[in-house]
Structure prediction request, 177 residues.
Amino acid sequence: MALTAACTSSSGSDNEKDKTATPTPTTAPSKSASLDPTEAAKADALTAYKAYWTELPKAYAATAIEGTDLKKYAAADALNKATEEIANLKTNGRVMTGEPVLSNPTVTAAELEKKTPNVSVSACLDVSKWKITDKKTGQPAPVASSPVPKYVITSLMERWNGSWMVLKYELHADQPC
Prediction:
């Protein structure tokens, strides 16, 4: 966005002040005007996807979906998996500490003209600092480790009532990134 500023000197005639003080009108294009509808939809989907990855660790740390906005960004299989995994953590007296790092989320496919628009997203997920911890002791819980801490994750999202939702995801531990 271009900003204009007028600088005036305290010395000078009123005409000179008027000439220098008059800013040149500029209008910056709005975000929606600068993106075509397809690119705007993809950008909105990625924003919701990042929000999902912000809310998911909160739910795993609290062992509860309540108190998070996870249901605002996840539905179907993605929400069911989270609910099951959170229940499992809670039953075993564990929580997730730290956070995963999501990098380079990219829309790899889009079907925006369908009755229910959808996009596929691919990203690199680094879980090296996201650990299962014993809730009472705070010590790391013994778990099988992944062969690689950073791997590709693909997700399917759909737009429901104007909001993008993560429906399902697939971890690709065989595809390090």
